[in-house]
């Protein structure tokens, strides 16, 4: 088997998906319980539940976007990088990223209004929002480049 950059990107998507799954299922619930164990207020005892629900809800579009990134790498590998399917995959990635941003912004505002927004959770949420924003801008630039390339390709096919 020849080691190519596309194979590396495919392996990276699997490793990233596995690490996020381990983070979601094993590490995060334990850390949230330890964070709230020292608080005696009623609201802090129920704090992990809405945080976990929000993070698990954002995992759904994350894995959808990760699958579309895998498909995009597959299109590149099959010499179909400049296709409408690649543009649609980038569109789905952008929509998933936008949904993740909305979830985290709503969650931070909601926890802030309840008065139970811990600094570590706020920093975590803000980091995810900014990383996801960068992803949206990157996907938008790639999408416009692919659309432009598709237009040039269609124009060249008409002239021949």
TrEMBL record:
<dbReference type="Pfam" id="PF11188">
    <property type="entry name" value="DUF2975"/>
</dbReference>
<feature type="transmembrane region" description="Helical">
    <location>
        <begin position="122"/>
        <end position="142"/>
    </location>
</feature>
<dbReference type="InterPro" id="IPR021354">
    <property type="entry name" value="DUF2975"/>
</dbReference>
<protein>
    <recommendedName>
        <fullName>DUF2975 domain-containing protein</fullName>
    </recommendedName>
</protein>
<feature type="transmembrane region" description="Helical">
    <location>
        <begin position="7"/>
        <end position="27"/>
    </location>
</feature>
<feature type="transmembrane region" description="Helical">
    <location>
        <begin position="96"/>
        <end position="116"/>
    </location>
</feature>
<keyword id="KW-1133">Transmembrane helix</keyword>
<feature type="transmembrane region" description="Helical">
    <location>
        <begin position="47"/>
        <end position="70"/>
    </location>
</feature>
<keyword id="KW-0472">Membrane</keyword>
<keyword id="KW-0812">Transmembrane</keyword>
């Amino acid at each position: 088997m020849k080691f190519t950059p596309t194979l590396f990107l495919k392996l990276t998507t699997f490793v990233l998906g596995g690490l996020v799954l381990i983070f979601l299922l094993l590490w995060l619930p334990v850390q949230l319980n330890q964070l709230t164990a020292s608080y005696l207020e009623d609201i802090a005892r129920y704090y992990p539940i809405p945080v976990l629900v929000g993070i698990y809800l954002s995992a759904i579009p994350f894995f959808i976007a990760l699958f579309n990134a895998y498909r995009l790498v597959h299109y590149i590998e099959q010499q179909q990088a400049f296709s409408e399917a690649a543009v649609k995959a980038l569109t789905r990635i952008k929509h998933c990223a936008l949904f993740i941003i909305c979830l985290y912004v709503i969650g931070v505002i909601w926890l802030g209004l309840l008065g139970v927004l811990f600094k570590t959770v706020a920093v975590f949420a803000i980091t995810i929002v900014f990383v996801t924003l960068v992803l949206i801008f990157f996907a938008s630039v790639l999408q416009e480049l692919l659309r432009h390339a598709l237009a040039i390709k269609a124009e060249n096919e008409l002239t021949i």
